[in-house]
């Protein structure tokens, strides 16, 4: 009986010990079990590139919208969707019977006014002032009537491909408001012929136009950059554009412009940016999505270290240097271009020096959860990871890759 009691008590002690250990493990922070991993990397010469990434959309460099400048019934449409047209080419017409008659009447009135002026008896002191005024008014009436006749013919505001026809023969159309010319997108260019309505709004251009003309060869990429990067992006900088539908065929591009005023969506402020494609691939269409990487700074043949080895606080940057005996020390360095994976070192290190990169062990576990890289930057590729590893918790302050 006494022996059985001792056995039971022993089992209870073991169970209580196991429970206590489990509670200790449950409340022990991950940092207590994380094992630091270090490696050293040589200071070497190379090219350091700083880039800005963004999402973009393929667009046409020119999109013109042609609308009739007079009311009437459509009598003909001379083009079809897909036709390539040139500036000034006839696209469609409306019934010009009334406009033509008004022009004939205006010309007849001008002829009468000129005849009355020429027959004035100036020898008897007849004044020609009133007669000359009638001639001038008749000339204005002829010009107005001629413009009305011209407005019955819709011409192309620019060169490109007919991408939309929003009307049919026999349809009654109304005079569009405007000062003459053509609707065009913000990125478009060209001059109107005076018989179509003009608008600076590209959004309403394609939807409200009787006929839309789009340049399918002069394609651009519209994107936007975050306010923190806006000061770095400038016209003329090189970029690489990867079309999402053609991921294996990146296209070279150049920044053509960046807006001076921002657009805001909620708390996000960005600046519209446009890129010109060097050699657009065949089959590219406006509206396709793309990824953009703009090179904003580059330094060739310079000393560089992994970005994960550099710790920056304020304006001061430091690295941990390892000597031949394995001893480490902290050095202050002056950095230049900061790339995604490497950083340019302007002073403080020599080629061949070795810098230390530290990361939390990727295999460390905390209550069954796999710990990720973090700490001061991790070992992701050549420059560390931005966040904790897959399935892990972000380490420390989160490394910058």
Automatic annotation (TrEMBL):
Organism in which the protein naturally occurs: Amycolatopsis xylanica
InterPro entries in UniProt: Beta-barrel_YknX, MdtA-like_C, UPF0194_transport
Name recorded for this polypeptide: Membrane fusion protein, macrolide-specific efflux system
Principal cellular location given in the protein's record: other
Gene3D superfamilies: 2.40.30.170, 2.40.420.20, 2.40.50.100
Subcellular location: Cell envelope
Pfam families the UniProt entry points to: Beta-barrel_YknX, RND-MFP_C
YknX-like beta-barrel domain span: 219-294
Coiled-coil intervals, chain numbering: 103-148
GO cellular component: cell envelope
Biased composition annotated in UniProt, kind: Low complexity: 169-205
Biased composition (Gly residues): 369-401
